[in-house]
Write a structure and sequence with these properties.
The complex is a heterodimer of chains A (611) and B (43). Chain A has three domains: 173 residues, Nucleotidyltransferase, domain 5 (2-Layer Sandwich); 152 residues, ATPase, nucleotide binding domain (Nucleotidyltransferase, domain 5); 231 residues, DHBP synthase. Chain A is built from 20 helices and 20 strands. An eight-stranded mixed beta sheet of chain A has the order 16-17-15-18-14-13-19-20, with helices on both faces. Chain A has a five-stranded mixed beta sheet with strand order 3-2-1-4-5. Chain A has a five-stranded mixed beta sheet with strand order 8-7-6-11-12, with helices on both faces. By secondary structure, chain A is α/β, with parallel strands linked by helices. With 43 residues, chain B is mostly helical. Chain B has a domain of 26 residues. Chain B contains one helix and one strand. The chains are: A alpha/beta (611), B mainly alpha (43). At the A-B interface, helix 3, helix 4 and strand 8 of A face helix 1 and strand 1 of B. Strand 8 of chain A pairs antiparallel with strand 1 of chain B. The complex binds fe (ii) ion. Chain A: This is Carbamoyltransferase. Chain A: It comes from Streptomyces guryensis.
Chain lengths: 611, 43
């Protein structure tokens, strides 16, 4: 019987469960994909059920359940923060304390009770690991490196907001940390909030906005908001932030510093937001690069592993890779708190004597992050037949050929295959695909499928062996977590057209891959290796064979504000609601023009919150 | 009732304790240290 460890992260945001089998990730999924509530923070009952089902286990077979942070320690931090903010924080105190007293300070007991309520057998002991220990374990243990420096940067867990580790084989040792309230993640979130985006999810938008702006506020940020040491460690000037005593991130002093109140979420994006985004992005990159140098000198390692929410900042990761401080970096695909579930389980599995079996293969232990549920063709056919949806089922080669022909003809293709991805990005199993050479593709996909205007381009998937021909990239980026420039010979020369400014800049064609090129000539790249995803690789290879272009536009299979689809039924619903032209669902092809009219009660768009 | 208890707890217990703590040593280490070479806490 293999040794099974179940990891759980929940009660903050993006809850998830992960099952580790003899030290290897066996199954992992975010609860939002089942509950269909984006960033669902609740106990991940369905994700737990899925993980156990995937390995044919019951709770009795699991050696330990691990909660991804230490609730007692976190309660101490929360109380200390209230005490430090007196007499200004009564409102949040009044709202938060009852929950902390009732159950949050013993969240692992709550987890045990929830597990018992699932009726899946006897609940094994529930233990916890510290928040950053979970992040660090998720960054190092599945990495392809025998030894490495590890850097975790996020908002906050218990006390630590930035930690630095040395990983060797099955051992992780913490070297240093920075503590709350001094937090790079919270600094970034403060600007996210101030620019009118949602904290904990809008950070991505702020990063996407940065290339439109000039970093004219970077000096003010360094002078007034954050004091940075040469080694990258920092302290925030808390007089400018409100999160110690309020529900909001920034207060009046912050507004005064940046010329007026925050942008309202519905308000227009102006030069100020562009420049704020560019400025905080620049400061973030500076800190990440300095911390990486420190990690290098403290450990002497030539490889770096990253996790924590800030490690989802793929622009900063790209700059870091470009600087060559380390020979190579590896970023946990579920770098945010969902990945804490996996890290917590890995951490305990290693203590229980598991080995890192993937070492020596030259590959990482994440199985391409394809750790979620799969649905076989029998299940898909049953669903399609039941709903009377016309389909064809060509031979595998013909399936690829037909999909490639559609893509080359400017069609948008829904691509649903195999196991769902773990982490925020779709990597070719729950993806919507298009032709990156098509200059209209960016707005087509946004308006007809995602139902939004976007100031961000889509991400390209590229055949790993061809990546360097198209992008200035000096290492693989299997999880879409590195941004790099389009290769010079794929860019279009010529002066910037006159009279175009602001968000319209995205419409200017700058490269041979306009749908995936940002206004600064960069792209958020996914390199696809044959071993990680053979079918997706074959699709890209066939597209290259037909068109000469080894790149596809890859965006997540969902509409704006909705979690990525999990089941065939959700994929069909998304296909029918939108202007996706073709749906490839396992071995089946559905063409929009052959489908009956789609009817559903009410306006489904009103059920999906704005993101 | 609960609201009143929380009010008393906050202003009669936490506030004096918090103010007292802060006069001795700020538990959140606010404020910069220009002469220190690093803010890293070594473990
Ligand atoms: Fe975190």
């Amino acid at each position: 019987m293999p040794d099974l460890v179940l990891g759980i992260s929940c009660y903050y945001h993006d809850s998830a469960a992960a099952l580790v089998e003899d030290g290897a990730p066996r199954a992992a999924a975010q609860e939002e994909r089942f509950s269909r509530r984006r960033h669902d923070p609740s106990f991940p009952a369905q994700a737990v059920q899925y993980c156990l089902q995937e390995s044919g286990a019951k709770l009795d077979d699991v050696s330990a359940v691990v909660y991804y942070e230490d609730p007692g320690l976190k309660f101490g931090r929360v109380l200390t923060t209230f005490a430090a903010a007196v007499p200004y924080g009564f409102a949040p105190f009044r709202e938060a304390l009852p929950d902390w007293l009732a159950w949050k300070r013993r969240a692992n007991d709550t987890v045990r009770d929830e597990l018992a309520g699932l009726g899946l057998g006897q609940v094994p002991p529930v233990v916890c690991r510290r928040h950053h220990a979970s992040h660090a374990a998720s960054a190092f243990f599945p990495s392809p490196y025998e030894s490495a420096a590890v850097l975790c940067i996020d908002g906050v867990g218990e006390w630590a907001t930035t930690t630095l580790w040395h990983g060797r084989r099955s051992n992780l040792r913490q070297l240093a940390e920075i503590r709350f309230p001094h937090s790079l993640g919270l600094l970034y979130s403060a600007f996210t909030y101030f620019c009118g985006f949602k904290v904990d999810s809008g950070e991505y938008k702020l990063m996407g906005l940065a290339p439109y702006g000039r970093p004219r506020f970077a000096e003010v940020i360094r002078r007034k908001l954050i004091h940075i040491k040469p080694d990258g460690s920092f302290r925030l000037n808390m007089r400018y932030f409100a999160y110690l005593h309020d529900h909001v991130m920034t207060g009046r002093r912050f507004e005064t510093l940046f010329g007026g109140p925050r942008r309202s979420p519905e308000g227009p994006l102006t030069e100020r937001e562009f420049d704020l985004a560019a400025s905080v992005q620049q400061v973030t990159e500076e800190i990440v690069i300095r911390l990486a140098r420190t990690a290098r000198s403290l450990t002497g390692e030539r490889r770096l592993c990253l996790a924590g929410g800030v490690a989802l900042n793929c622009v900063a990761n790209g700059k870091l890779a470009d600087r060559k401080i380390f020979d190579e970096i590896w970023v946990q695909p579920a770098a945010g708190d969902a990945g804490g579930a996996l890290g917590a389980a890995l951490s305990v599995a290693m203590e229980r004597g598991a080995s890192r079996a993937h070492l020596g293969t030259g590959r990482d232990g994440m199985a391409g992050a394809l750790l979620g549920p799969a649905y076989n063709d029998a299940a898909i056919r049953a669903y399609l037949d039941e709903h009377g949806l016309p389909y064809s089922r060509p031979e595998p080669d013909a399936l690829i050929r037909e999909a490639v022909a559609a893509l080359d003809g400017g069609k948008v293709v829904g691509w649903f295959q195999g196991r769902m991805e773990f982490g925020p990005r779709a990597l070719g199993n729950r993806s919507i695909l298009g032709d990156p050479r098509d200059s209209a593709m960016q707005s087509t996909m946004n308006l007809k499928i995602k139902f939004r205007e976007s100031f961000r381009p889509f991400a390209p998937s590229v055949l790993a062996p061809d990546a360097r021909d198209y992008f200035r990239l000096n290492q693989d980026s299997p999880y879409m977590l590195l941004v790099a420039d389009i290769a010079p010979d794929k860019r279009l020369a010529g002066p910037q057209p006159e009279g175009i400014s602001g968000l319209d800049l995205l419409k200017v064609q700058r490269s041979l891959l306009p749908a995936v090129t940002h206004v600064d000539g960069s792209a958020r790249i996914q390199t696809v290796a044959e071993e990680d995803n053979p079918l997706y690789y074959r699709l890209l290879a066939a597209f290259k064979e037909r068109t000469g272009c080894p790149v596809l536009v890859n965006t997540s299979f969902n509409v704006r504000g909705e979690p990525i689809v999990n089941t065939p039924a959700e994929a069909v619903t998304c296909f029918m609601r939108t202007d996706i032209d073709m749906l490839v669902l396992g071995g089946f092809i559905l063409r929009k023009e052959e489908q009956p009219a789609w009817r559903e009660g009410g306006d489904w768009r009103s059920d999906i919150p704005l993101d | 009732m609960r609201r009143a208890a929380l009010f008393l707890l906050y202003y009669l217990v936490l506030t004096p304790v918090g103010l007292l703590c802060r006069t001795v040593r700020d538990p959140l280490h606010r404020g910069v240290r220009p002469r220190a070479s690093s803010y890293l806490v070594r473990r």
